[in-house]
Amino acid sequence: MPVGLFRVCLLVITAIVNHPLFFPKENGTVPENTEEIIQKMKEREESLRLEQLRLEQEIADQEATQKVLEKAAVVVKESKEEKVRWDMWTALSMVIFLLIELWRQDFQEGNWQDIGGEEDDMAVLGKAFKGVAFPDKAVLASFYEKRILGTTGDMARMREMVEGFADDLLEALRSVCNRDADMEVEDCVGVGSVYENWRVRKPFVCDLIVPFAPPEPYCFRCQTWCSGDSFPPDEQGYGTIKVCRADEDATGCICDKTKLGEDMLCLLHSQVSSSRLSSEMEDLLCFKNTQYLDADQVMKWFQIAVTKAWNRISHKYEFDLSFSLLDSPGALKIKFKSGKSIAFNLTPVVQYENSDVYFISHFPRSGLAADIPSSTHWFLTFAVYERRFIQLVSKTLPANACHVSCLQILSFLHGKQCSLTGPSGLTNYHLKTVLLHLLQARPSQDWAPEKLEARLQDMLKFLEKCLHEKKLYHFFIGNGKVPAELGFPIIFQRAEPLNLFRPFVLRRDIYRKMVDTFHEMLRNMSALINEYTVHIPLAHTNGIRKD
């Protein structure tokens, strides 16, 4: 009870103390401060709301920008994918177009002779002989005896006469040249069909090559396409000849390979010595401002030297001597007072190192080097080794072997066909290359005289195969089976094989002319041979067994 009364009294006292009437008057300003606080709170709330709206706007703008960037990335990606797809389809379309074009051209090549309904001669090897009346052994033997054997004696006499005159002319040439400044001319070497005894068509033309060398103290440094340096495909078979001093380093001075500063001078070569060297090189028949031998300069020098030599000895002979071809330095013609004439070629060459391979400036009457890259590029000729190979193989063949007869007959047919339809890219050198390949591939007994017909057919079929494949490889270049007795340089044996038909791969008009000439020659073969063959009784012909 007392506790309860105490609590009631305490409550009453507390109420009285806290009554508002007991506080001072100045406390009446509180309500006004509260309103200011509330007003400030409202202003703060408004500013916070505005800030929130600004932040929301920025976030919205950033999201919009991000979406635009994402869309742009997607568009770029899709455009790239579309471009890749377009490039792929473009490339695929180009490939298909090229394949169709190649197929069309090959189809035309295979059927360009079949417009009249004829079968494709080149489709299957040997099919070109279908329907061709090939002469038998008796007709071939009669043709060879009547048309070809009679020319051998005339060719030997002409060869002897030309060799004697050429030796006299070169001796006079040495006498008119300055031994200290002009090129040194060596003895001539006979090459080609006349010296290999298979030339059949008149007029007979002797091919003589004349090696020459620079005067002391200079020497030739030869570089071929297979010597390790890169040569373009169209320069295979060619080389360059650099004229150097014998004591000069093959690599030359470093000032020739680097550009010295304006304040630097080469202690070995000054401007005066460089101009003097350039003048010396021009005197040594080099291309302007280089040390490389110029074939055109050599041609001019040789023609002038031959003219001077002939003027010195012309009083000894009762005939005239003149140049028969303007584009060949040594195409000469002897004209007798009776009206007869003898043509021969005296061509300057440069020996490759210590071998019998020669750099030749020009090929008279030949398409072997028709498109020379430049006058500083010289074609390599292996004519001496070709002659030696035929002589070496002939020693292992049966008596009166038919290898030379095959080449003579084929050369005669080709020449007659060209006189009817005009010349083509096919040359006698191609025919000789076919024979060289077959001589190496076939055993000796296959070249017996009674097998003339079979071997002639082999040569024609081999040539047909080469025309079909557009590949006829040079016999020596890249051939590792060359007999060691020949002493042939190993660098050419290890080289990549050289396709003699490569120039005709891109020149389809010439290739078609070659194939056309070949087919026409096959069709006209019997008629051409019978024209120069005596009549053979039918009984005699039927009594001969074919090989």
From TrEMBL:
Residues 404-477 form the Mab-21-like HhH/H2TH-like domain. Residues 1-20 form the signal peptide. It is found in: Cell membrane; Nucleus outer membrane. InterPro entries: ITPRIP-like, Mab-21_HhH/H2TH-like, MAB21L/cGLR. GO terms for cellular component: nuclear outer membrane; plasma membrane. Transmembrane segments: none annotated. Residues 38-72 form a coiled coil. Keywords: Cell membrane, Coiled coil, Glycoprotein, Membrane, Nucleus, Signal, Transmembrane, Transmembrane helix. It is a single-pass type I membrane protein. Its main location: membrane. One of its GO terms (molecular function) is protein kinase inhibitor activity. The keyword Glycoprotein applies. Enhances Ca(2+)-mediated inhibition of inositol 1,4,5-triphosphate receptor (ITPR) Ca(2+) release. Belongs to the ITPRIP family. This is Inositol 1,4,5-trisphosphate receptor-interacting protein. It comes from Rhipidura dahli.
